[in-house]
Specification:
Layout: H1 4-17, E1 23-28, E2 34-36, H2 39-46, E3 51-57, E4 60-65, E5 70-74, E6 79-85, E7 90-96, E8 100-106, E9 112-116, H3 123-126, H4 137-144, H5 151-156, H6 166-176, H7 189-208, E10 249-253, E11 256-260
This protein binds a DNA duplex through loops.
Length: about 270
DNA sequence: AATGGGACCTGCGCGC
DNA sequence: TGCGCGCAGGTCCCAT
């Protein structure tokens, strides 16, 4: 489940390996993941373009091309980018100068590839909230003020802040000792400060360890990320809280599995 | 504004 | 051993 740290990890590896390379060919094994434009036009318009710049906006990866177009990649749940790839399980593979392939894998076909003129015009991008790293504590506090929503779904709302998903929301709330169901506006100043710091720390640590490979996420090199061993609550239902030994609880909030310690998180 | 549901999808683990 | 089922969660969309 790629969130900000996973996508950032891939972005940094792409910069080291494929930046400046030319896309010399495209192999499409399942056109379902190509949302824009049609298949033929996608192939025609991406061929012979050079990868000029690589960006990340929230969980969205953007490859700016020499043609003036950009390739936007959203991994959603099970998307992977692998380089060099082998084309075996890929939905779409890009042949790059040097004759190695960049594979887009996606077992569940929920991921998205788009080739477009100006990625800034994408609705998803326009609606994105600020990156956590770009915020000050004061700004964060103001954003929570008056919000009735439960804090965990709010953290995961990409129009509120961008990049936090189910896993890192749970980890940040645990570290901040805040119950995931608390209305956002009920948080005290100190709560907000702890939460803000926890979000930043968790994301930074996860980037440092190259992401969490619980499910399908892998780094560009096809190796798993190492952050799972530093998880404290996610997917630990019934296991003792690492602080107080109370069994970790699992509930559903906003339709998502939610893990927390009923003793530590108030 | 907030909330809840369904849709998109496939692979996995579970119970029987 | 095999089968059906629920579930995993990122995003969009619709209803209330």
């Amino acid at each position: 489940m790629p969130e900000l740290p996973e996508v950032e990890t891939i972005k940094r590896e792409l910069e080291k390996t494929v930046l400046g390379k030319k896309i010399t060919g495209v192999k499409i094994n399942n056109s379902k993941v190509i949302k824009q434009p049609g298949t033929a036009s996608f192939v025609k318009n991406i061929k012979n373009a050079r990868i000029n710049n690589i960006l990340r906006k929230g969980k969205l990866l953007i490859l700016e091309l020499s043609s003036g177009k950009s390739l936007a990649v959203h991994l959603r749940m099970t998307g992977q980018l692998v380089y060099p790839g082998d084309c075996k399980r890929s939905r779409v593979s890009f042949k790059l100068s040097g004759n190695k392939w960049l594979d887009f894998n996606d077992s569940r076909l929920l991921g998205e590839l788009r080739l477009l003129g100006d990625w800034r015009q994408l609705k998803f991008v326009k609606n994105l909230g600020p990156e956590p790293f770009d915020l000050t504590l004061d700004e964060f506090k103001h954003m929570l003020a008056g919000r009735k929503t439960k804090i965990k779904p709010l953290l995961m709302d990409q129009t509120f802040i961008s990049g936090v998903g189910n896993l890192y929301a749970a980890e940040a709330l645990f570290r901040a000792k805040i119950h995931p169901g608390r209305p956002a506006r009920s948080l005290s100043g100190k709560d907000k400060a702890r939460l803000f710091r926890a979000v930043i720390v968790v994301l930074r640590e996860a980037i440092k360890y190259k992401g969490s490979s619980l499910d399908q996420y892998v780094q560009l090199s096809n190796k798993p990320g190492d952050y799972v061993k530093y998880h404290k609550v996610y997917a630990r239902a019934g296991k003792p809280c690492l602080i107080c030994k109370t069994p970790v609880k699992r509930t559903t909030l906003g339709g998502r599995g939610t893990y927390f310690c009923p003793q530590c998180q108030k």
